[in-house]
Amino acid sequence: MHRYRFLLSRQWVILTLVAIALIPTMIRLGFWQQHRYEERTARNDLVSAALHADPVPVERLTSPGHTVTRAEKYRTVTATGTFDTAKEVVVRRRTNSDGEVGFHVLTPLVLDDGKVLLVNRGWIPANGAQTDFPKVPAPPAGRVTVTGRLMSDETTAASGIKNVKGLPDRQIMLINSEEEARRLGARVLGGYIQQTAPQAKDGSPEQISDPGSEDAPLNYAYMIQWWLFAAAVPVGWWFLVRRELRDREEAAAEQRTEESEPAPV
């Protein structure tokens, strides 16, 4: 075992301790990526199931004060009523599919029973001063039936968007049914919908596209990668040990050869 005494040197002790610490760390990182993969896959399955479910009347899933659940989010719903454009607001700092900054148009839809559904009719560009209320294309007049994806109320905690106070008139930062109920003085259904039909004749407001799926396979690849790294650490450590041993033995052999050679006369 004297051949391996070099492992007790300060350099090799530090290297060995680092290798020992890396193995469980990489294994834990692999399990974390596995958890993220399973979590994202479950969310993707939930969103896909909601998007492909048959449309239902909105009041079957939500009511005033209701909190839209994960299973209800993205469900396609229908509602019949009249748009109240006088109470319409715009949501600041929203982007379209091309990354352009503008507004989302939020219009109350007064249902046949008097309750109010918040309808996000889509995106419009921010042409002009941000303090001015933008020119908003009018929705269909009179009684209309709309279809859309049910969404949960926006909060700062969930979205990361700060709910700034003192905004210009009829401009908001977050779509929140409780706040809108106080502003409108009406019974507002929990959550809101992203309108998908009928589509605007001139394409404005630009309707919001379907949510994309999260990249769960990337987490799966990272999981495999971390576990391969964990397996490679002891292999790499043993490779370095063998190389160090070989180098030491070659150096010792060269020294013996030099010592055995006769001294020049």
UniProtKB/TrEMBL annotation:
Keywords: Cell membrane, Membrane, Transmembrane, Transmembrane helix. It is a multi-pass membrane protein. Pfam families: SURF1 (PF02104). CDD domains: SURF1. InterPro entries: Surf1/Shy1 (IPR002994), Surf1/Surf4 (IPR045214). It is found in: Cell membrane; Membrane. The chain crosses the membrane at residues 12-32, 220-240. It comes from the Bacteria. Belongs to the SURF1 family. This is SURF1-like protein. The lineage of its organism: Bacteria, Bacillati, Actinomycetota, Actinomycetes, Kitasatosporales.
